[in-house]
Amino acid sequence: MRQAGAVIVAAGRGTRMGTAESKQYLLLDGKPIIVHTLEVFQREPLVSEIVLVTGEQDVERCRQWVSSYGLNKVTKVIPGGSERQDSVYKGLQELAAEWVLVHDGVRPFVTGALIHACCEGAWESGASVLAVPVKDTVKVIDGEGFVSATPDRRSLWAIQTPQAFRRLELIEAHEAARRDGFSGTDDSMLVERRGTRVKIVEGDYSNIKITTPEDLDFAAWIRSGRQRRGEDKHD
Ligand SMILES: Nc1ccn([C@@H]2O[C@H](COP(=O)(O)OP(=O)(O)OP(=O)(O)O)[C@@H](O)[C@H]2O)c(=O)n1
Ligand SMILES: C[C@](O)(CO)[C@H](O)COP(=O)(O)O
Asked: Residue 234 domain-assigned?
């Protein structure tokens, strides 16, 4: 069976969340958010191994969770870098797999079906990202707080993770970005700028990135809805 390795990045400081504890370690239904995320990748048969990238000061407690929650696909827990891009780059060095999924540790509502769809998208086309159509009207604002343009919403999609690539191609794209001083807000941007066509695979509106305080309320709500519908039972 074709498989992919995963780099899960969780070395951010959660500045926009503003909590004393980094957001990836806050409890959701009694379990750290990062553990919820890892458990989805652990269960998915298409995932062969996982590298977890955390803050230097959190490596040890994450290793303990890996052991106590039985996350035996996590082969390495390593310290990240100062930007998300640096953390992904470090994680990519620790995998051997031909294909890699890059995922935010703070997107715990990813599902096996989404991981599966993302892998299939990459295997068919070379690179793929999850995304959902934008529901709001989006405007471009000038430096003085006035509208300068209203892009056609039909061509706007909000990008999520996971994102799937050939691992060596993504490493080369990261190295080119480092050489050029280019910083992207996702990994797709790094291969796009080198001419790779990236396939959009439809994600899910509930695959939120926990970023700001109100996201914790959304997260609790998504979680309780899944429990009510019995979607949290996995074995
Ligand atoms: N140096 C960094 C920065 C971010 N991340 C990870 O990248 C994901 C998406 O980043 P974001 O939501 O922006 O997290 P933070 O950087 O922690 O948040 P903020 O920008 O508000 O500080 C998170 O899982 C975060 O832990 C990382 O591994 N290393
Ligand atoms: C990769 C990402 O989650 C796609 O939506 C997002 O771009 C990360 O951005 P952030 O600046 O780290 O929030």
From this structure: no
Portion of the chain with pLDDT greater than 90, in percent: 97
Looking at the domain assignment, is residue 149 inside a domain? yes
**Nearest protein Cα to ligand 1, atom 9:** 104
Position in ligand 1 atom list of the atom nearest CA 212: 21
Q: Is 161 helix (H, G, I), strand (E, B) or coil?
A: strand
> According to DSSP H, which parts of 25-164 are helical?
33-43, 59-68, 84-92, 112-125
Give the domain extent around 125: 4-228
Is the CB of residue 86 below 6 angstroms from any atom belonging to ligand 2? no
- Interface predicted TM-score of the whole assembly (ipTM), two decimals: 0.98
The predicted pLDDT at position 123 comes to 98
Question: Which residue, chain included where needed, has tokens 């990748």?
Answer: 41
In the predicted model, what is the mean pLDDT of residues 158-182?
A: 98
Number of domains the chain contains: 1
> Is the shortest distance between the CB of 19 and ligand 2 below 6 Å?
no
Q: 194 pLDDT exceeds 90? A: yes
DSSP class of residue 4? E
Mutate to test the pocket of ligand 1, among 16, 36, 84, 85 (most ligand atoms within 8 A of CB): 84
Q: Is 233 within the bounds of a domain?
A: no
In angstroms, what is the span from residue 229 Cα to ligand 1's centroid?
A: 31
The rounded Å distance from CA 112 to ligand 1 centre is: 22
Asked whether residue 235 is domain-assigned, the answer is: no
Q: Which ligand is nearest to the CA of 211?
A: 1
Tell me if the pTM is above 0.95.
yes
CATH of the domain at 58: 3.90.550.10
CA distances (Å), 116 to each of 7, 23, 29, 87, 183, in order? 15, 26, 26, 24, 28
